[in-house]
Design a protein that fits this description.
mainly alpha; 3 helices; rod-shaped
Length: about 130
């Protein structure tokens, strides 16, 4: 809590007590409070100029939410890295399998060509 926030709370409590005790008549010796009450607009203006006062509970809740979000971002980043690694591994495996399939297709085509040539030049041989 800022100094201005504390000052504002103290002044509000004091004025509330004084007005409840005295009604509209402020007892002698409490005259300074009326001058302090007239300072409240200045306190509000200073608070607006310096920054917005956030109650401690709201501030704590905001801090907790920010920590939760930071933790969630950290977990999601770790998960993203794991998923990215899996994707990279699968892409490498896919490329490898694609290359293997291409090699096998070429071997099959070469084998077919050999069988075609043999059947053309040696028609009497039996195929196994």
């Amino acid at each position: 809590m800022t100094f201005l926030g504390e000052l504002e709370e103290v002044l509000e409590v004091i004025f509330g007590i004084c007005l409840n005790i005295a009604g509209d008549d402020i007892p002698e010796g409490v005259g300074e409070l009326t001058s302090q009450k007239s300072l409240l607009p200045e306190v509000y203006a200073a608070r607006e100029k310096v920054g917005v006062y956030i109650p401690k509970d709201d501030y704590q809740q905001e801090e907790n939410e920010q920590k939760d979000m930071a933790d969630q971002i950290e977990r999601m980043t770790a998960s993203l890295e794991v998923n990215q690694k899996q994707i990279n591994d699968l892409q490498e495996k896919y490329s490898s399998e694609l290359q293997h399939s291409d090699d096998l297709s070429k071997k099959l085509e070469a084998t077919r060509n050999v069988w075609t040539i043999q059947a053309t030049y040696y028609p009497q041989q039996k195929k196994i």
